[in-house]
Amino acid sequence: xxxxxxxxxxxxxxxxxTDLVLAAAKKRAKELKIxxxxxxxxxxxxxxxxxxxFADPKLNLVAVGIAEGYRENGWCFTDAEKKxxxxxxxxxxxxxxxxxxxxxxxxxxxxxxxxxxxVVRDTLYRFGQGMKVCVEIVMMAADAGLIPMDKEVMAIAxxxxxxxTCIVVKPAYPRKFYELEIREIVAKPRNxx
Length: 193
Description:
The protein has helices spanning 18-32, 45-54, 79-87, 103-111, 116-124, 129-143; strands at residues 8-10, 36-40, 60-66, 91-95, 153-157, 165-170, 181-189. By secondary structure, it is an alpha/beta fold. The chain has a single domain (12-189), classed as Pyruvate Kinase, Chain: A, domain 1 (3-Layer(aba) Sandwich). It has a seven-stranded mixed β-sheet, with helices on both faces. Helix 1 packs across helix 2. The longest helix is centred in the N-terminal third of the chain and has 15 residues, at 18-32. It is globular. 38% of the residues are buried.
């Protein structure tokens, strides 16, 4: 069987592509009957936009934020933002990144070198920051038990703010990384800079 599909290549990264990526994501999710969407969101804005774009009360929408270790950078959800997402029926996950920023990263910062997680992260960055984040948030949501493991899911992320990347994924837990499959690229930035 041969399947031909279109990939949306964004001219820019981040916010400027958000509406187009969400429209493409909704279309492809509907075609594949995907009801589990994982979206990276720093302060909830992208998650709310995804909720509005998909507009389906049966949708399992998981917003993945950054761990509390980054509060000093201003990248963490506030209590008000968390409450707003919960009120919208969006599941919230805040955890350490599985592709770096854990214990191994503290050793590499001090002693040099790269952990396996950082090598995987840096490889995925060749497709763009959003691709790395998409893969990462799927594994994080899987580990938290927020998505089914026997169905394809969709991950949406971006570069800095907004969204510019969307993939269809067969999920896997971080400890079973080799079982993860990127089945489709729905959207990605064409230029990474």
